[in-house]
Amino acid sequence: MVMTALKRIVIVGGGAGGLELAVKLGEKLGRKGKAHITLIDAARTHIWKPLLHQVAAGTLDSHADELEYIALARWHHFDFRLGRMTGLDRDTKQVVLAPTIDEEDGSELVPEQTIAYDALVMALGSQTNDFGTPGVAEHAIMLDTPAAAERFNKRFINSCLRAQARRKQAGEGRFTVTIIGGGATGVELSAELHMATRIMSSFGFANIHPERDLKIVIVDAAPRLLSALPERLSDAVALELRKMAVEIHANERVVDVSAAGVQMASGKFIPSDLVVWAAGIKAADFLKEIAGLESNRLNQLVVGRTLQASRDPSIFALGDCAACPLGDTGATVPPRAQSAHQQAMLLAKSIPLYLAGKPLPEFKYQDYGSLVSLGEYSTVGSLMGGIARGSLFIEGQFAKMMYWSLYKKHQVAVNGWFKTWLATWGEYIDRVSKPRIKLH
């Protein structure tokens, strides 16, 4: 009897879509010894990206919601490799990973690696796009990684502690946080910061009041906040933010960020103590035409309706790093968490078919609507598809429940129902027994 080698499926990127796909394929193929699945990520732990604004504000402890890739790999029958992808050899079908360096002493933990594949899935997500704006890299924080969110939180808390330690002089201005970008990240961060300051004030921080001492500003080049979402949702969010005294500057293009503040093309200048850049996304720069693959101006890999790269059928891409056709409109699937989830679910079916030499189904994006959380103040959204003819505007407690359920759906996809139930019970215990904001 001739033994045939197991097919090798390699997934690069452990974000929501990549991790969910690794879990599905591990359970479907890895558990039964039908294929060898490897997940690659530059970090050791996973956190759901839509939670980063809460990590930045300190209303969520990132370490409490992190998932260890090594443990997940063991539970779900796939391998995990720590490393950052730097290259691709399509002729030999190998992914190249840079050496991993110990942050403590600078020593090499893991040398440069090459990992072979029969089917490769690029699920590298996206990073913030500063559009070449001067001063952004030096003076703004981009909330596209847990490390960046932690860094912002440390600066924010330190600024609040300094304000608490000194007495404000007569006529002295407020501490200003300017958020550039009026999409979901910028909007949700503004509400979380307001809530975090209110909680700190209740802890006895006499010089930290959300309206009197903190000024939150949102700047966006579009005519309104959340320009990609329905106008009614945008108007409802703007109304809620103005109730919190959040200052909104729409139709304003930022041309420079300095240590002193933010300069706009109109001539307006906003003196700023902290600046967050949350305007626009792009895929990682190294993906631009990597190994001769086709990419667009945002470095996204161009894929067909089966999510296969236009120039190599053995390579798939999903989520924010993929430019996938959206029907016959000429547009591409929007870079949203629900897109990555839907594409991961399709590839969990498609990749076994590809390895078996069978035809693949085409991806059809279903827009289930949008939800925007304003912390404990409000949640608004629109539900679409089968729930209503057109769209159904929702807000209040029902919208909050729907927003909460999105994260739980991701947890179920990764951990299953029982472990998710246990984790949810633990979250409740932590919430009633510990402070609701991280001050360290």
TrEMBL record:
Domain of life: Bacteria
Name under which the protein is recorded: NAD(P)/FAD-dependent oxidoreductase
UniProt record similarity statement: Belongs to the NADH dehydrogenase family.
Keyword Repeat listed: no
Molecular function, one GO term: NADH dehydrogenase (ubiquinone) activity
Domain FAD/NAD(P)-binding: 8-344
Xref: SUPFAM superfamilies: FAD/NAD(P)-binding domain (SSF51905)
Keywords for this protein: FAD, Flavoprotein, NAD, Oxidoreductase
Listed transmembrane segments: none
Annotated InterPro entries: FAD/NAD-bd_sf, FAD/NAD-binding_dom, NDH-2
Pfam families associated with the record: Pyr_redox_2 (PF07992)
Species, as recorded: Iodobacter ciconiae
